[in-house]
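> tool_call: predict_assembly(chains=two)
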Amino acid sequence: MAKYGLAILAGIVAGFVARWLMLRSDYRHYPTYPHGQLTHLALGFIAASLGAVAIPAIAKPDYVAVTFLVLAAQQFRDVRNMERESLSHLEETKIIRRGSDYIEGIARVFEARNYLVIMTALFTSAATYWLGWEYAVVVAVVLIIISLRLMNGSYIGNIAEVVAAEVHFEGSLLKVNDVVIMNVGLPQTREKILKEGMGVLIKPKDDNARLTLDAPGQRMAIIHDVVSILGSKVEINETELMPVARKNPEKGYLAFFIVANEPDLDYFMEIIRKVPVLESARGTTLKSYFGRKAAD
Amino acid sequence: MDNSISNFILAIVTTDANKVLPGSCPIILAANQKEQEKVSLLLARILGGIVHDLENGLYFICRH
């Protein structure tokens, strides 16, 4: 009995620690809300318990218990729905929206993290049961590192080059280098934009990156991340200073314009480089035969 | 749900009455460019729209 207890305990601890470390909470990531963190830690604990009791249940052997475990694991599919729903509801009251691509990405990541927790707990408890707790510590550490690696997606900085660009007007057309952003009528707004506006170009490194940056969902994600850190001077009924990302249709790069509360160009570019590449927006043309041929 | 009208010209502000024909939206005649800018700004704020410049002396307000 003590052997089972130790295995279960080791599994739960390893799984819970894994969930804790995977719970990012800087201001870009969700959840930034204390209650959200608690919810996810609690779910992580349940996931860890599920994973931890599986091996002892088989070893006992108690096959009914194992069947129940499989049933319980199904519950974690709801995590995705939960995240999606709550983020979509919050979306309605936002001036700058995340976009459904970003929300879907976040929801999927949350679901996946729980499965990683279950795996970590499962293997750790197995190691404890058959090899002893000394080995379990090593297995747990390795699994946690693997989990963190798996959860580390790619960033805009990996697929594109971000360079500073000039914000200027051509008649009434606001442009960032050679990309038209929008038509601005009032002279006083133009002055404000020239004084405080910042512009950058996001140049894709290959065809995959170009497709990724093409996706409106990915652009919304970039805008959302920048605005959530640097702020924006858009007001509810004054949408003239809306941050906008527009494409140069000939060359395929994006021009990004914003009037931020904190006009710091270097950090602005650094934030863009750190925006995650969304799964649903990721371009994969170079993986296909015709895509590669067309790219030459 | 937001049921307001968008992507539609809400008002035209001009200094030259010859440049616009009667249409589906209100057309406001301003005495000079200063008044034109002022009126456009106020209208844009009230309607929640953006002032656009057609570069021929016409301003219009549109909500996106």
